[in-house]
Every structure is written in C-alpha cells, then in structure tokens.
C-alpha cells in the first residue's frame, strides 16, 4: 500500500469564495481524504475553520478596493505555526502570490518540500484593470516559483510564460472534471425551451451560454458581439462587477445569477452551445465542464483553451485579435445543428477519463512523491 501523506495546502482562496482556485483546492482535499491522506488547509479569513472534517487555518486578510469579494491573505505568523504543528510531508502552494509566498518562506525554514501550482495570471489581472505594477508582480510571481521545489502548470501557454520568466522544473498538471455532477443527462427540455423562446418573437432560438465570473479579466463585454445574432439567445450564468453593464447592453439576454451544484449542471446541459470570452486563461475549467455536459464549445485561440479545444473536432476556436471572429464562429455553430452534435460528442469523449480522482492521484504519485524523493508506489491490489 502507498504511504499515506500529510499535505498542507496554503491557498490564496477558499470557501466561501467560489472561483477556480477554490474549486481546485476543494477537489484536491476531497480526494486526498478519500484516498486516506491527511490534509490541512491554510487560507485567508473570513470563512469556516473546518471543511468536511479537514481543519482550515484562517489568516489575516485585506479586501482590495477593486475586488472586495476576494480577500487577500497577509503574511501571518499563523502560517509557520500551523505548518510546524501539523508537520506535513509536503506543502502544496495553490496559486501563490501573497499568502503562498509566506507559506513558501515558512516551508523553507522548516525544511519542508514544496509543490507550487500556477493557476492565476495576476500580472494580466492588473493589466486588465488598468492598475500599475504588472512587471514587478510578474517578477515576484517568478521568484516564488523559482524557489519552490516544483511548479505545476495547467497548459502549454502557462508553461511558456513561466519558462520565459526563468522558472525551472516546470511540469504539466491539468484539472479534473466532476463527472458525477456534469453530464448530458441533466438537460432539461422545459428549461431549454423557456430560454429559447424568451423575449422577442415566437420562433425558438439557439441558446448560447456563458458561465463564469462577470469581471473585466474575463472580457465578458465581448458577449455584446453575439447578443444580436439572428436566431441566437444569450444566457449568462454568473455574477460579478460587470453584471450591470451586461444587463444594460444585452437587453435580450437571460441572466440566471450565480449557480452551483445540480442547478449549474442543469444550466450547462440545457445550452445548445457554450462560449468563453477571456483570452488570458491559464486553463479554463468551464470549457471542460461544458464538454462534460455534452455542449459544443467556442473559445479564443489563446491561453489555456488551445490545449482543451481541438479546433473543428472537440470545439471551435476563434481569433481574439480579429474583431469579427467571435461573431462569425458563433453564427456558424448556431446555424449548423449537425456540427453542434459532432463537436459535442467529441468534446464529451475528450473529458470522459478526466475525473478528479485520477487527476489527484497523479498529483500525489507523480509530483508529491517525487519532491519527497519517493518512487511512485502502485495501489494495493
């Protein structure tokens, strides 16, 4: 039987915040516990001190003015105290920038091996919000990852970016999909029909949906480019600071607000097509969730989506630098039902083996154990 590990996860975000970092950490914790490992989570306050029986150490935090719903963890003596008390085999740094940097320093002082997971393009975030400091933050991110024992990147684009910043020892580690939650069986005909016939006219529309945070870094204002396509109804699933602008400028769209769990799975599966607008994604988990839901995908030919969408086979990629490309690509998919079916089927096949259990097992056996100097051990028969 494989040696069971004690894993301390220092994360920049955790519940009650809901985002890509939180979701990845949650799945990692769930499957570490299921496989007999012992995790500890260290995350910014506020929030519960326990997640499904796993202790969560909360540290001091501040809320940035431009994004008050996203607390930033501050360097805190609680990090090193928690690590020293827990005595982990390995420290997992989830999207390290602030709290993760403190976790890295503490781990190095305690002689603990570290695995850093690159997930958020913070310099790009600053650029999108028109804030200063992009170059200095990029250097800071690179410094953190250079000092970690191993950095895991989710995509080819992320690998190239960190490599260009001089970060060594880069390894690909993708993301899983909750195949127990997302699937075509959750499609609700009455929900689809309500969306398809909402608003103007009686003829049903092709339902094209966006799912995710409604924020500038997701470039959601580009949804306006497809909102008036003949025969198309846009459905927006999510919440964020761009919500009011979108409501004003997409008067014919349907807004569901933020959804989770089964409600989210039903929303995905009830779409005719899924579109993603952000071109600075390091991965783009919503693409995989749409594919798992049996929905054809349209995404930018940039960043993480390039690894997730084989153009013309498992989805369609548009050129984000070509003003008409998003609109023409969605129009092509909207008028070709047969193409939608082919892309949906191929996308579903692509994610069929990408369940989170196998992805977390890969994290443990190939990455945690290698930084510990342990050979990967086979599971018990």
Break the fold down into its secondary structure elements and pairings.
Elements: E1 6-11, H1 20-34, E2 38-44, E3 50-51, E4 54-59, E5 61-62, E6 72-73, H2 77-86, E7 90-94, H3 99-110, E8 114-117, H4 122-128, H5 134-147, E9 150-153, H6 156-164, E10 170-172, H7 189-196, E11 206-211, H8 224-227, E12 232-237, H9 243-249, E13 254-257, H10 261-269, E14 273-275, H11 285-292, E15 297-300, H12 305-308, E16 316-318, H13 325-334, H14 337-351, H15 356-371
Parallel strand pairs: 1-2, 1-7, 2-4, 7-8, 8-9, 9-10, 11-12, 11-14, 12-13, 14-15, 15-16
Antiparallel strand pairs: 3-4, 5-6
Could you please describe the fold and organization of this structure?
The structure is a single chain. The protein is an alpha/beta fold and 381 residues long. The protein folds into two domains: 6-176 and 355-371, Glycogen Phosphorylase B (Rossmann fold, 3-Layer(aba) Sandwich); 184-351, Rossmann fold (3-Layer(aba) Sandwich). It has 15 helices and 16 strands. The chain has helices spanning 20-34, 77-86, 99-110, 122-128, 134-147, 156-164, 189-196, 224-227, 243-249, 261-269, 285-292, 305-308, 325-334, 337-351, 356-371; strands at residues 6-11, 38-44, 50-51, 54-59, 61-62, 72-73, 90-94, 114-117, 150-153, 170-172, 206-211, 232-237, 254-257, 273-275, 297-300, 316-318. An eight-stranded mixed sheet has the order 3-4-2-1-7-8-9-10, with helices on both faces. It starts with 5 loop residues before the first strand and ends in a 10-residue tail after the last helix. The model is unreliable at 375-381 (pLDDT under 50).
């Amino acid at each position: 039987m494989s040696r069971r590990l004690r894993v301390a996860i220092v994360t920049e975000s955790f519940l009650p915040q809901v985002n890509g970092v939180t979701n990845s950490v949650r799945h990692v914790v769930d499957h570490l516990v299921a496989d007999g490992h012992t995790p500890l989570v260290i995350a910014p306050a506020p929030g519960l001190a326990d997640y499904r029986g796993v202790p969560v150490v909360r540290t001091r935090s501040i809320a940035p003015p431009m994004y008050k719903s996203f607390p930033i963890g501050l360097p805190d003596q609680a990090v090193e105290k928690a690590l020293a008390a827990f005595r982990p085999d390995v420290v997992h740094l989830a999207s390290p920038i602030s709290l993760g940097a403190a976790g890295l320093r503490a781990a190095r002082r305690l002689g603990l091996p570290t695995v850093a997971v690159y997930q958020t393009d913070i310099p790009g975030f600053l650029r999108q919000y028109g804030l200063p400091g992009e170059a200095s933050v990029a250097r800071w991110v690179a410094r953190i990852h250079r000092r970690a024992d191993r950095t895991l990147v989710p995509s080819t684009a992320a690998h190239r970016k960190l490599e260009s910043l001089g970060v060594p020892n880069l390894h690909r580690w993708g993301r899983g999909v909750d195949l127990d939650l997302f699937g075509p069986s959750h499609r609700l005909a009455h929900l689809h029909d309500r969306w398809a016939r909402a608003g103007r006219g009686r003829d049903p529309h092709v339902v094209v949906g966006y799912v995710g945070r409604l924020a500038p870094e997701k470039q959601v204002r580009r949804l306006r480019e497809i909102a008036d396509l003949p025969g198309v109804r846009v459905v927006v699933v999510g919440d964020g600071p761009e919500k009011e602008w979108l409501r004003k400028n997409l008067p014919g769209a349907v807004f569901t607000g933020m959804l989770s769990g089964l409600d989210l799975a039903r929303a995905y599966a009830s779409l005719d097509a899924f579109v993603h607008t952000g071109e600075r994604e390091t991965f783009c988990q919503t693409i995989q969730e749409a594919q798992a839901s049996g929905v054809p995908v349209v995404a930018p030919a940039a960043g993480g989506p390039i690894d997730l969408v084989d153009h013309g086979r498992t989805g369609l990629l548009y050129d984000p630098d070509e003003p008409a490309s998003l609109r023409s690509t969605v129009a092509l998919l909207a008028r070709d039902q047969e193409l939608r079916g082919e892309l949906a089927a191929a996308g579903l096949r692509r994610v069929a083996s990408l369940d989170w259990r196998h992805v977390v097992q890969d994290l443990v056996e190939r990455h945690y154990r290698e930084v510990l100097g342990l050979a990967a051990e086979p599971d018990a028969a």
